[in-house]
Write the structure tokens for this entry.
Amino acid sequence: MPVNNIEPKFEVLHMPPENTNSVLVTVGTDAVIFDAWGNSKDWEKLLESRGLRLIAIYSTHGHGDHISAAPMLAEKYDVPWYLNSEDNVLISWSNNLLKYFGLPLIEGNYRQPTDVEAGEKEILPGLFVDVIETPGHTPGGVTYYFPDYGVLLTGDTLFRDSFGRYDLPGGDANAIMQSISKLYEMNFPDETFVVHGHGIDSTIALLKKENPYFK
């Protein structure tokens, strides 16, 4: 259903250096970013060139390749950055990855994230997302589901034919398998469009067919 008579637009973006699937959700000129990877300056150019007003930033988890631009964008536009508080300890650790990619480091006085908890959340007027706790890849990993539009953002919990690493700080093999089973048992419609943290997108039907762990 349209929000205020305007259909939301979901765009999967690959900001340089291309590595992570970021998602830009817009309703008219209002915008929300999920997993703001890359350099904040590139996001600023994109938002300004398209006349978009940033409302908030959401992260599926706290690894550097999903939050690199978040604190800087939150500071510049004075908007909230949402991250499950279990992953706050990973923010400074993420600078190791940012060094590898040649991206600006997250400074010690970075804009603090706001805790995002499980449940329904209105991210833009009339546009709702379900926040699902899916720990394992990280302690505070979450998945975002837009029930009215059939869009699921899994971060690094689940990929098209595999799942995220659990050998990084805070990872837990048993927890990630439980999270994958939890998503399977939620019985999303087969046509649900699934955006993973990395790699090509899929649908629930494709996951059932191609991912041996999605069960």
User: Anything to note?
Assistant: Helices lie at 40-49, 64-67, 70-77, 90-93, 95-101, 173-185, 204-210. The domain at 9-210 is CATH 3.60.15.10 (Metallo-beta-lactamase; Chain A). The chain has a mean pLDDT of 96.
